[in-house]
Design a protein that fits this description.
By secondary structure, this protein is α+β, with helices and mostly antiparallel strands. The chain is about 30% helix and about 35% strand. The chain is elongated, with a radius of gyration of 27 Å. The mean pLDDT is about 90.
């Protein structure tokens, strides 16, 4: 089965549906806006099932994303490999209860926007400041430059200024 736009959570978990395939990068608009090239696809492998009384989606997302280096501007391939273990919950109380152990996803009306959830996960994986390998090595090899500390202009002690003024009068 390919990667549907949305799934019915209860039936997907009950039937242990599996979602394997390529998801074109250009079909993920928020992610596509951050990439230097939208050719290619994400490799998605997710298994729906019931776990500890909740519907779950577990699997992996991977591929090569083309990012633009924020330092030199060159495009470079950035490898993405991440595992997901989502618990699909219907209310905020269940979401709060599971937050310590799992990654809960709030589902409305038994429907999960699957492609949107995948896109959210990939966006969270992206580096905050993309840098190609050569720029990353250059930055890593430079010692931390201490920010120059500007000295405040030296102000004259007000009592000393008063004393000078009294002597000159």
């Amino acid at each position: 089965m390919g990667i549907p736009t949305r799934i019915r959570v209860s039936s997907a978990a009950a039937q242990a549906e599996r979602y394997d395939g390529g998801l074109p990068l250009k079909s993920l608009p928020r992610l596509a806006g951050l990439l230097a090239d939208v050719g290619g696809a994400l490799e998605v492998s997710l298994q729906a099932q019931m776990r500890e009384g909740h519907a779950a989606l577990q699997g992996s997302l991977g591929g090569s994303l083309t990012l633009a280096c924020k330092r030199c501007g060159k495009s470079y391939a950035w490898p993405l490999e991440t595992e997901v273990d989502w618990r699909l919950v219907a209310d905020e109380a269940s979401e709060r209860a599971l937050m310590q152990e799992f990654e809960p996803l709030l589902v409305e009306d038994d429907e999960l926007q699957l492609r949107e959830a995948i896109e959210d996960e990939v966006l969270l994986c992206l580096p905050m400041l993309p840098r190609c390998e050569s720029c990353e090595n250059m930055v890593a090899s430079q010692p931390e430059a201490a920010a120059p500390v500007e000295e405040e202009p030296r102000r004259e002690n007000p009592f000393a200024a008063l004393k000078k003024q009294l002597k000159s009068d």
